[in-house]
Amino acid sequence: MKRKLFDTIVGGILGLVLGLGWSSPTLAQGDPLPSWNDTPTKQAIVGFVARVTKPGPDFVAPAERIATFDNDGTLWVEQPMYVQLAFALDRVKAMAPLHPEWAYTEPYQSVLEGDIKALAKIDERDLVQLIMVTHAGMTTDEFSKIVTSWLGTARDQRFKRPYTELVYQPMLELLSYLRVNGFKTFIVSGGGVEFMRPWTEKVYGVPPEQVIGSSIKTKFEMRDGIPTLFRLPEVNFIDDKAGKPIGINEAIGYRPIAAFGNSDGDLEMLQWTTISSGVRFGAIVHHTDAEREYAYDRQSHFGHLDVALDAAAINRWTVIDMKKDWKVIFPFETR
Amino acid sequence: MKRKLFDTIVGGILGLVLGLGWSSPTLAQGDPLPSWNDTPTKQAIVGFVARVTKPGPDFVAPAERIATFDNDGTLWVEQPMYVQLAFALDRVKAMAPLHPEWAYTEPYQSVLEGDIKALAKIDERDLVQLIMVTHAGMTTDEFSKIVTSWLGTARDQRFKRPYTELVYQPMLELLSYLRVNGFKTFIVSGGGVEFMRPWTEKVYGVPPEQVIGSSIKTKFEMRDGIPTLFRLPEVNFIDDKAGKPIGINEAIGYRPIAAFGNSDGDLEMLQWTTISSGVRFGAIVHHTDAEREYAYDRQSHFGHLDVALDAAAINRWTVIDMKKDWKVIFPFETR
Fold first, then answer.
1. Which of A317, A321, B121, B333 could disulfide-pair with B328, CB 3.0 to 4.6 Å?
2. How confident is the model at residue B16 (pLDDT cuts 50, 70, 90)?
3. Distance, CA of B243 to CA of B70 (rounded, Å)
4. Rounded-to-integer distance, Cα B260 and Cα B177, Å
5. How far is CA A117 from the centre of its chain?
6. Backbone angles phi, psi at A276, to 5 degrees
7. How far is A106 from chain B (nearest CA, A)?
8. Inter-chain touch A253–B8, beta carbons under 8 Å
9. 3-state secondary structure of B288
């Protein structure tokens, strides 16, 4: 009996370790951040994680190890335009046959004619209009299917790959490294929350309930006895700039101890995370590699990084130099 | 070397099992729901959990094992009034010296005079006004401290105990039982999210990011270089009735497979959860025990249960009869 019980326990434990992918930092072999060069940036990350996870004055309980990540330009490519904008433009083209008036109505006309110059100057009001027309007017389930279907076929023009492959390998390793060390990793993006959720778990290992983003209003209705959530053409919440700490507070409750961004839209999230008591970590991904990805900051329309770059120096946030700090940019380079 | 590695692994595993409180349903000894009588209700709960966790056609992956719980009247007492209303009334009294005009202005006058009859008839507009005055005008950190401090001293009139002890022991066991079986347990309450978060982890084992509730708007500001979230007297979201599936969708993304409520405010959450493909579980806590707690349903002002009780029969939701199904009501009865 005892022998049998022992076998059951050992079997159960092995199943847990092997089958459920449990891994411990103490057992992990090799470098958990192999795509990061051995620079002060990597040392700062590893040093921070060591300080808050080891017993001592800076120890943080696992429940409060919250790390937040911007998405566009921090976890995946945001040039030559936000992926969600590319989605909206493709949706306009797909929906155009039902809207003949779009042929002579802006901003649709520029979209349909592929007028890149006009599109580059698109203002926020036109952007919101494009988002509403293409993102509202269906149930949440239907929208999720549209996003998944589009991501399955759409390809980035430069890299000729699905957008979900244009994610940063070093950041994937960082997400995983933090989770292995007891962190909960959240995405906090100006992008639409329902545009991200269909794929963030598969691509980043971040489940839907840990994705915070912008949203439009929804309406609950019983339709022929079937409960539905219908997407309305009305802004509910913009999760950008000062909206990020608000979104974090609404969705998480705890204040993060680490935050990663790449643009002025992340300034307030970084302030909220780092200007507080206790050990905190703030970092900005600086796009410095025109050859392997893109190089941009203060002059860029998408991923505009100006005030937050100055604030990084003042607040001692780590600036991740993509060219110097990253051995590879994309997962497909490692295969 | 091999021996040493083996010791390290076994040590690590034992540490995991013993130190981190890991427990497996297969190793668990005894009844996980000891405060539940062995009635069809308990059998329905255990049967549902078995179906969705065992390999087979009804298996649900752990990531999608989402269970949502209403709070007032489902996890803790809501009579003779919502705890949060008791909090608001106490706050009015505490703040009254700074507001002399309240002595002759409704609804404050009734509060200060302890006019129970007038308070029982309080309408939604007055309730919102009382909530705004007592819940806004401070930072989120300050509000959290006010709530924690109040819960430390306030006592329920009938049971002479802190409100956080007036939680239902069978529901605590149910929350724990579901989590041991891989479920994520969420609170989805009409109550204020920032009123619940300071204590839900300690009392229910539900961390702040798994608490969904009503909220007021907040404003992010840098005050003398310090980032603050200031609470504004403006409704942001009412997480009740049709708001519950909306709140669930916004915060979780996944649709729950199990939902527990006790009033008409939970109708739409139960519909959204159960009227769908796959095995689902909906349950209503029916307050039938005037002796040990309270007995109320269709006529009650707080926790009004009428349409949802009829819907339970139609949709085959389990009705939990507190008198018949629960051996004990409160944790202090078991000590």
1. B333
2. very low
3. 13
4. 14
5. 27
6. -165, 170
7. 31
8. no
9. strand
Nearest CA in chain B to A221: B242
pTM for the structure as a whole: 0.90
Average pLDDT over residues A200-217: 98
DSSP H stretches of helix in chain A: 2-14, 40-53, 83-95, 108-113, 116-120, 124-135, 140-153, 169-180, 193-204, 243-251, 267-274, 307-315, 322-325
Nearest CA in chain B to A25: B12
CA atoms of A283 and A170, how far apart (whole Å): 14
ipTM of the complex: 0.89
Q: What is the mean pLDDT of residues A79-100?
A: 96
Contact status, residue A305 vs residue A262, Cβ threshold 8 Å: yes
**CB–CB of A188/A70 below 8 Å?**
yes
* pLDDT tens column, B104-156: 999 999 999 998 888 878 787 888 889 999 999 999 999 999 999 999 999 99
Chain A residues within 8 A of B275 when measuring between CB atoms: 225-227
> Which has the closest alpha carbon to A218: B90, B242, B86?
B242
Instruction: Using an 8 Å CB-CB cutoff, list chain B residues near A26.
Output: 8, 12
Asked if B177 and B36 touch (Cβ cutoff 8 Å), the reply is no
Cβ contact A253–B229 (<8 Å): no
Indicate the pLDDT class of residue B14, thresholds 50, 70 and 90.
very low
Number of H helices and number of E strands within chain B? 13, 8
Distance from CA of B271 to the nearest CA of A (A): 6
What are the angstrom distances between the C-alpha of A248 and each of A133, A180, A185, B229?
27, 22, 12, 11
CA–CA min distance A36, chain B (Å): 28
Tell me if A17 and B13 make a contact (CB, 8 A cut-off): yes
The Cα-based distances of A44 to A184, A281, B259 in angstroms read: 19, 9, 44
Cα→Cα distances A325→A170, A318, A322, Å? 9, 11, 5
CA–CA separation, A182 and A11 (whole Å): 25
Within 8 A by CB and 6+ apart from B238, the residues are B190, B214
Q: How many residues does chain B have?
A: 335
Helix (H, G, I), strand (E, B) or coil at A286: strand
Helical H runs in chain B? Answer: 2-14, 40-53, 83-95, 108-113, 116-120, 124-135, 140-153, 169-180, 193-204, 243-251, 267-274, 307-315, 322-325
Q: Are strands A66-69 and A184-192 parallel, antiparallel or unpaired?
A: parallel
Question: Strand, helix or coil at A226?
Answer: strand
CA distances from B249 to A185, B25, B66, B246, B253 (A): 19, 30, 12, 5, 5
% chain A with pLDDT above 90 = 85
> Would the CB atoms of A209 and B27 count as touching at under 8 Å?
no
pLDDT confidence band for B3 (50 / 70 / 90):
very low
